[in-house]
Every structure is written in C-alpha cells, then in structure tokens.
DNA sequence: CCCACTCTCTGACTAAAGTCAGAGAATGGA
DNA sequence: TCCATTCTCTGACTTTAGTCAGAGAGTGGG
C-alpha cells in the first residue's frame, strides 16, 4: 500500500466530507474564528499565550477576537496573578453556555456522520481512527532539548520515577536525582509525553555517552515514539562527540529491552553500580548513517 | 470504543496537525482558494459548473477566481462546444507547471508527515486511513432518486449489466431492459457507485414491490453501502405503498445473498420467469420500524 | 419561434481574517 | 536599580472570502 497516496486520498475525503461540514456546523451565529477560540478556551479557561500557540494566531488579532467575545459577555480576560504580563481568558456563565452548545453541535455532527453505518462498521471506523490518531500524533510531535531545570522536564522525570516505583517489585527510590546531561522532551497540550537524556560518563568510561530516563507516556506507546526518541538521543550523542553509547535497565521493563535490541543494542556486563539495573547495553554509533 | 469521541478526537488531531500544515503548505504565493481551485481544475480541465459543485463556491466568486487565474496566465476558460452556456476551464502550460508544483508540494508534505514512522508503522497508518476513508465516504454519500432516463442511471445500469455478464458462467444478456420503477443512485466524482430500484409487480403479485438491479461499485464494497441501499430501497417501497418486497438473484452472487439474509429476507419459491434467477426472496415490511 | 429555464458574468457590497510596527507594563537576572 | 526580555494591546492597514441581485447569452420543449 502506497502510504503517501493513501494519506493524500484520505485528506481529500476528509476535507470534503468532514472539514467543510464542520465549518458550516460550528460557524453559526459567530464567525468561525471566534467559535474556535471560544471552544479552545474551554470550561477551564486558558492563557492568552497558550491560545496563541494552539491556534496559531497573531497576537493583535487574538486580542481583538478576545475583546469581541468579552463584548458579547462570553469571556473575561484577567491578568495572571503569577505573572502579571500574562493574561488568562475564562468563560462567563453565558460563555459556558455557548461553549456547551458548540460541544453539543460537534457531538451531533459526529453522530450524524456515523449514523448511516452499522454498529460493526462504527467499531471498525473507531478503531481505524484511533490508530491513525495515535500514529499521526506520534509522527508530528516535536522533540525539543530542554534545560534540566525546566519545569516540564521535572514533571516528566517525576512521571518516569513514578512509573519505575509502580513497576519495580521492590519499588523505586530516585534518592536525590542528579540532573546532569542533555534532555529531550516531547509535550502535548502542556503535558510531557516522552522524555529522555544523554550524559557523559566519567572514570574508565570517560567519553562514552549514557542514555538515561527513556520514558514514553502509556497513552502514546505503540506508535514508535520510543524508537524515535532513541534515534534522536543517539543523534544528540553523536553531536556531543560520543561514538559509543551505553545504558542500563531493569528486567521488568521488557518492552524497553526488546526495543533496545531492535535498535541494534548489544548486552554488555555491568558498567555501573546502579542498584536497580539488571541489564546493560551498548551501541557503537561511529559507522551509523546520519539521521535525517 | 466510543465512536463519536474517537471521531472528535481524531478531528482535533487532524485539524491541528495536518489541516493547518496543509494550508500553510499549499497557500504559498497564491491565496489558498486560488490554489485549491487550480488544483481542482487539474491537468484534464473541468467544467465551471462542476467546480462550483465540488468546491461549494458562489458562481460570481468562482468567476472572479477564474478570471484572476486567467490574468496570471495559468488558466483558460472557454465555452463548452456541446452547450455554449457552460464554460470549461483548462490549464495553460504555465498553469500545468503550477499544478505540478502544488502536487509535488502535497506529496512532499505527506512524505514529511510519515518520515518519522518506521515502515511497519507506515503500513499500519495507510491501512487505518484506507479503512477510515472507505467508511467515511460510504457514510457521507447521498443516495438520490433519479429519473429512469437520467444518463448517470443509464451508466450505472450499464455497469450492473456488465458485472453480471462477467460473473454469470453463461454470460448475461439484458435484452431490451425495461426501465419501469423508481431508482436510487449514489455518485462520486460524477461516476455511479451504487444503484438500485423498486418497481411494482403485476398479475398475482399486484401491490408487491420488487427490488431490482442492486449494485455497488467494487471499490466501495465492504463499507455497508449495499445494506444502506437496501434499507433505503425498503423505505422507498414503503413510501410507494408496498408492505412486502420480493427480489430475485443468481447463485453466483453469494455476497448479495448473504446480505439479503442478514437483512431479514427469506427464501421463497420462484415467482417470475427471469431465466437468470436461481433464488427468490421476500421481506415483510409492514411491522418494520421506520428508518431514520 | 416563443418561453421558461440554465449557466455564467458583472457590479456593488460586507465581513472575516490576517499583518505589521510599535507602545507600554511587568519580569528576572546582572 | 538597570536593562534586556516577555507579553499584550493599539492603530492602521491589506487581503481574502463570501453574498446578492440582476443582466445577458444560450438551450430545449411545445
């Protein structure tokens, strides 16, 4: 099956059959941009900065859209107490009602779309869309380098440690984690979904890179995000001047071990005194092709 | 799995990750509407009327868009020799080049999107999208009543007869087909994809409806379009005052027979002298719930 | 050869969407 | 306490998209 041809064919179908419908459905009474904004603010409110990023709007334009919703009594915009340069938009009671109406309409549209299908076909459609959703999200998410003290990185590290504590039979105590190294992070809707880092070892292994804290959110597994993270960490290690990387892991993390093996890692003897480590791997980077 | 929630979740992902990207990709140099139009005209050209339907544009607006493309030397608009009220847009050499560039860009976008995925994941994505594409198209296609002498209906009947001729061991000769009855037709991009009709029987079976020429294009099978056609034909038969429908079929058409049985049809003895018929079915419509 | 109808085009608009430069308040480190 | 930086807002625009009411050419059936 030709992937790009299928994708392009689907794009066509989607634009014509769903996209157009959605616009006509949601843009009633209010311009579409204003509806989208209202929907995006949502019952929990949202920062102006965040809205700008999520919707890709010019700051002046967003200000005006917000003022308009404010004028209609749907939204209030206040300074963020934590940082008074930032502003936060929240829905008023009327705004909440309008939001609910949009949500209902969106649900109705979805209902109407699947109405001609039988139950079995709906299940098939839902499965196909869930798969496509996961893969598209995993393919389009950006891995970015973060400072060790970035709050999102700390959040990700916390989630990583929590998972180890859950999965290791004897629990897991990170002690006083040192944050040495360079870390990559992928976030979605402000929450970390994948995380990992490289640091340089010292002593006998001086010059060798160690891959640390590889973690992918459970909801995002099965779409190759772990493998992608590993590839990008290897590329990062190369940029940092390492031509060999090592890592340690625990026997409970079977999927991770399988992934390392698929990625060309070979088991080696213990190289550190990590009490939780039960398996050690290495990979020679020097002859590898440069990644795209 | 909750179908509408999955669908809505996918919509979100799609709009953010693909839709936005596509707009920024295709709308370079030219407004997006003009690009879309140029792309839609395509190397083979297209009638203005057809473009209006496909893109959902106001006729005045389309005229102006075309004039603009004409002014840029990309498109020529001439009267259709067959009906000089109609006009036909064709690409000039420069227009063809611009079209090719759009096509390349669209392909590049698709490539880029799937680039982070492994081959296995690409196959999974392509399969999921192909399934979703078929189901969405089948769910959103409109079945419309057509006059028996509608050229699209004649086209569909021709395709139906051709398939019978291919599948029946001894071939099939429609003889001089009578066009009595009311027919439903679904078309996509101007070509018939599903077809079928109801006519009233006479003689002993006066008052009974007969379902005729049920046909679904091969590329559209497996998405319940046949079952939907059958349901709508039954609804049509009810509206025409029949509380019982019958139909005949050939033993070679095993999928059709399975579908009739799933839809509640029961085998009955031969009720007509159709030489190609090998099985006869009936369904009582009176107590059935009205379809949506 | 009428006449109702189809199809496209023109003129005259309006609304929505987006852009850009720069002002002003607030913040966080040096 | 500076000062560079971040964030939002304002003013002054342009472009894109879309709407609506007719005019005028062409068509097909009676």
TrEMBL record, chains A, B:
The alphabetical list of record keywords is: Acyltransferase, DNA-binding, Transferase
Q: Could you confirm whether the keyword Lipid biosynthesis appears in this record?
A: no
Q: Which Gene3D superfamilies match?
A: 3.40.630.30, Winged helix-like DNA-binding domain superfamily/Winged helix DNA-binding domain
Instruction: Give the domain of life.
Output: Bacteria
Q: Which PANTHER family match?
A: AMINOALKYLPHOSPHONATE N-ACETYLTRANSFERASE-RELATED, AMINOALKYLPHOSPHONATE N-ACETYLTRANSFERASE-RELATED-RELATED
Q: Where are the transmembrane segments?
A: none
Q: What is the lineage of its organism?
A: Bacteria, Bacillati, Actinomycetota, Actinomycetes, Propionibacteriales
Please list the residue ranges annotated as the N-acetyltransferase domain: 141-286
Record-given protein name: DNA-binding MarR family transcriptional regulator/GNAT superfamily N-acetyltransferase
Q: Which residue intervals define the domain HTH marR-type in the entry?
A: 1-140
* Family matches, as InterPro entries: Acyl_CoA_acyltransferase, Bact_Acetyltransf, GNAT_dom, HTH_MarR-typ, WH-like_DNA-bd_sf, WH_DNA-bd_sf
List, in alphabetical order, the Gene Ontology terms for molecular function in this entry: acyltransferase activity, transferring groups other than amino-acyl groups; DNA binding; DNA-binding transcription factor activity
PROSITE patterns recorded? GNAT, HTH_MARR_2
**Per its UniProt record, what SMART domains does this chain match?**
HTH_MARR
One Pfam family from the UniProt entry?
MarR_2
């Amino acid at each position: 099956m030709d992937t790009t041809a299928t994708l392009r064919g689907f794009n066509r179908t989607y634009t014509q059959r769903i996209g157009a419908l959605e616009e006509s459905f949601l843009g009633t009474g209010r311009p579409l941009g204003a509806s989208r904004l209202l929907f995006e603010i949502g019952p929990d409110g949202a920062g102006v900065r965040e809205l700008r990023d999520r919707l890709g709007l010019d700051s002046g334009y967003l200000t005006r859209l917000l003022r308009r919703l404010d004028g209609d009594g749907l939204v209030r915009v206040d300074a963020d107490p934590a940082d008074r340069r930032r502003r936060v938009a929240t829905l008023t009671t009327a705004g909440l009602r309008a939001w609910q109406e949009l949500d209902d309409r969106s649900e109705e549209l979805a209902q109407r779309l699947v109405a001609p299908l039988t139950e079995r076909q709906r299940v098939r459609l839902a499965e196909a869309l869930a798969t496509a959703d996961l893969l598209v999200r995993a393919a389009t998410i950006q891995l970015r380098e973060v400072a060790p003290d970035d709050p999102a990185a700390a959040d990700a590290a916390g989630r990583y440690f929590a998972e180890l504590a859950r999965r290791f039979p004897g629990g897991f105590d990170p002690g006083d984690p040192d944050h040495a190294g360079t870390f990559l992070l992928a976030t979605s809707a402000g929450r970390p979904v994948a995380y990992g880092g490289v640091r340089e070892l010292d002593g006998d292994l001086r010059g060798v890179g160690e891959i640390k804290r590889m973690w992918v959110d459970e909801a995002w597994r099965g779409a190759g995000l772990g493998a992608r993270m590993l590839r990008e960490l290897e590329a990062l290690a190369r940029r940092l001047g390492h031509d060999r990387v090592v890592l340690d892991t625990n026997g409970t993390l079977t999927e991770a071990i399988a992934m390392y093996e698929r990625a060309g890692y070979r088991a080696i003897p213990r190289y550190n005194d990590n009490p939780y480590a039960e398996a050690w791997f290495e990979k020679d980077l020097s002859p590898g092709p440069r990644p795209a």
